[in-house]
Amino acid sequence: MQKPLPRIVTPAAAITGGLLLSALLIMAAGRNPLAMYAKMVSMTFGSTYGTGQVIFRTTTLVLAGLAVAIPFRAKLFNIGGEGQILAGAFTAAVTAAFLPSWTPAPAAIAIAALAGAAAGSAMGLSAGLLKVRYGVNEVISTIMLNFIIRGFTSYMLTNHLALPSTAHTPDIIDATIIPALWQHSPANYSVLLAGGTTLAGYFLLFRTRFGFEMRACGLNAEAAAHAGIDTGMHTLYAMAAGGAAAGLVAANLVLGYRHCFEAGLTAGIGFTGIAVALLAKAHPLWILPSALLFGFMEYGGLSVNAYVPKEIFMMMQAVIIIMVLVMQKK
């Protein structure tokens, strides 16, 4: 029997393929690929601002990746991360803006962050209920929920909550603001929340009976049901947990950075989270380096945009994911 390849082989080969393609495109643009890669690293990590940008983006992508990875372990494909992040950000922003000003800071932050997680979880649970009760494929339901949530938040913002002559809600109260890691940086202490959520996801999936049963449902739902495992209930739990992780993105985007909800806040983050989870092969601990790589490529591509088109690195991300999917079939 042929031994399975080590877990690192597939992502390493995919990243190498992405680098080779981007190198060809960079040469086609008349630049030296090695020089451009070196410039990306120096312009990104050579300053506290660039480092902060990568940490900020990585924090968001870790949680967005977990939103996909956790349900994926139960053989569920959550495409609703974008809508769940929107719901969480909107709910957290409104909650944090209208909390009493005398609320203690730790409690205020916890209330706003949990409100965001609850909103995201409710969206994920809705898709789970549609699947368990009516047999609706979660891919279709989560995509449709993305449109519904986007429309609802846009309507509420435009017609009821936006400040006059703006496209954002009132600022959150000071007690709900998560401090920045350093001055003039978007990176904030919600990075600790992202790391803690990753560890919690790993412990839940791989160190508890509950996680074992959830993974069993993903491997063979019929066999799991014969063993007495409630597959429907695990579907609901998995989708709700994934939605909660997406909703927690509000801690980074709203409480730690923008301090309000505004139009275009998510900018497709939920879909990038799918790529992060696929590269990590839906393993919570591998989400961390995967999110860091995508966060670096996003900001690094912008940092060298004056030399080569940033779209090259967007294509590189797509090639990496396609290669991961192809290699998983072998």
UniProtKB/TrEMBL annotation:
> Which InterPro entries does the UniProt record give?
ABC_transp_permease
Q: Which UniProt keywords apply?
A: Cell membrane, Membrane, Transmembrane, Transmembrane helix
Q: Which GO terms describe its molecular function?
A: transmembrane transporter activity
Main location class: membrane
**Membrane topology note:** Multi-pass membrane protein
Q: In its keyword annotation, does this UniProt entry include Ubl conjugation?
A: no
Q: Where are the transmembrane segments?
A: 12-34, 54-72, 84-102, 108-130, 189-206, 236-257, 263-280, 312-328
Q: Which GO terms describe its cellular component?
A: plasma membrane
Question: What does the UniProt entry say about where the protein is found?
Answer: Cell membrane
**This chain belongs to which protein, by name?**
ABC transporter permease
- What organism is recorded for this protein? Prosthecochloris vibrioformis (Chlorobium vibrioforme)
